[in-house]
Amino acid sequence: MAKRSFPLSKVYALLEPGPVVLLSTAHKGRSNVMPLSWHTMMEFEPPLVGCIVSGRDFSFVALKATRQCVLNIPTVELAAKVVGCGNTSGRDVDKFKTFGLTPVPAESVGAPLIAECYANLECRVVDTRLVNRYNFFVLEVLKAWIDPGCKDPRTLHHRGRGVFIVAGETIKLPSKMK
Amino acid sequence: MAKRSFPLSKVYALLEPGPVVLLSTAHKGRSNVMPLSWHTMMEFEPPLVGCIVSGRDFSFVALKATRQCVLNIPTVELAAKVVGCGNTSGRDVDKFKTFGLTPVPAESVGAPLIAECYANLECRVVDTRLVNRYNFFVLEVLKAWIDPGCKDPRTLHHRGRGVFIVAGETIKLPSKMK
What is the complex's ipTM, to 2 decimals? Predict the structure, then answer.
């Protein structure tokens, strides 16, 4: 995988625009993938990410048990696979095989990276206080990878029911904000 | 304001794509506005939204004290005003006057709607358990408004340091996901 390590201090710039991500887990010898859009940055460094994983999702059990996952960021070329992963359950199918996704061993967690995604964030669960009430997990990003060839990633932004906005033009304004 | 009431059950479709929002508050006779991108949907209905408001932000005090706010969703036409609101503090300036934003009374909260934004979500704080540790507030959307003339809102998605992706083309795939 022609990816390089990406500085943790810049991870927020990958997730802050709100892209759909593919959450990958591994538990009891089975890897799984699910798309999710309900996530937010919570801290710059170390990067903390909050996300909702429903108790109905097969990934919930793996995430809760292993406290490890990878957030993989797909671009528009993977849209059909992303929706496919959302339309099926890891209870029934091996999503890596079914959708032709390539698992790659991570450096610091047991869950696999997805080779086809332009960025991968290896995460561990650091706070479960809001899991019972909201299925809300706080993750710390331990290691980040990026495809250096992907300059303007055309990320997917879900508007519900399979409708996605694709990242369009980029504008820059003089900002004091980080 | 030519806006109409928007069903609470569809609010997730406005926030799930990850747009920059303008959070408006009112406290002790002063209204204020700040842009933020660190937010996530947490529940469909009633719609719950989690967001980070830093303790350094002037809005933090107002949000904590009043437990009310409005999340206003701007489009690209407002980009300069959005960045302006981020570059200044409500401690020093009246951002509504400075940036030519029009406050409109809300129906269910004391904070004002911003007329120029294509959608407005009146919110109350419902959970502060993660405020001390992460400045993370859980909001419930009580009332939503939308400009019915704005069909494909060109929302802003922050990539850090004043760089924004503008919502581009829309694609639709056959999805079982909500």
Answer: 0.97
Q: Which residues of A156-174 are buried (b: 16+ CB within 10 A; e: fewer)?
A: bbbbbebebbbbbeeeebe
- What distance lies between CA B113 and its chain's CA centroid? 10
Q: Is A50 on the interface with B (CB under 8 A)?
A: yes
Interface of B with A in 149-178 (CB under 8 A): 154-155, 157-178
Half-sphere exposure (Cβ direction) of A71: Cα atoms closer than 13 Å: 33
Element (H, E) at A49: strand A48-52
- The position carrying tokens 């570059």 is B87
Token pair for residue A172?
A: 């820059």
Nearest residue to B123 (alpha-carbon basis) of B36, B29, B1 = B36
Distances (CA, A) of A74 to A8, A84, A116: 19, 13, 7
pTM: 0.97
Contact assignment for A175 to B86 by CB distance below 8 Å: yes
Q: How far apart are CA B132 and CA A97, in angstroms?
A: 43
CB B32 within 8 A of CB B15: no
Q: Give the 3-state secondary structure of residue B64.
A: helix
**C-alpha dihedral sign at A13, A16, A17, A22:** positive
Contact B163 A177 (CB under 8 A): no
Nearby residues of A130 by Cβ (< 8 Å), 6 or more positions away: A136, A138, B127, B129, B130, B138
For residue A2, how many other CB atoms are within 10 A of its CB?
7
Whose tokens are 């469909």? That residue is B44
Whether omega before A46 lies within 30 degrees of 0, making that bond cis, reads: yes
A26-77: pLDDT as tens digits: 999 999 999 999 999 999 999 999 999 999 999 999 999 999 999 999 999 9
* Residue A74 DSSP class: -
Is residue A117 classed as helix, strand or coil in its secondary structure?
A: coil
At A76, list the tokens: 């528009």
Query: What HEC string does A77-94 produce?
Result: HHHHHHHHHHHCCCCCCC
Q: Which of B13, B40, B86 sits opposite A159 (nearest CB)?
A: B13
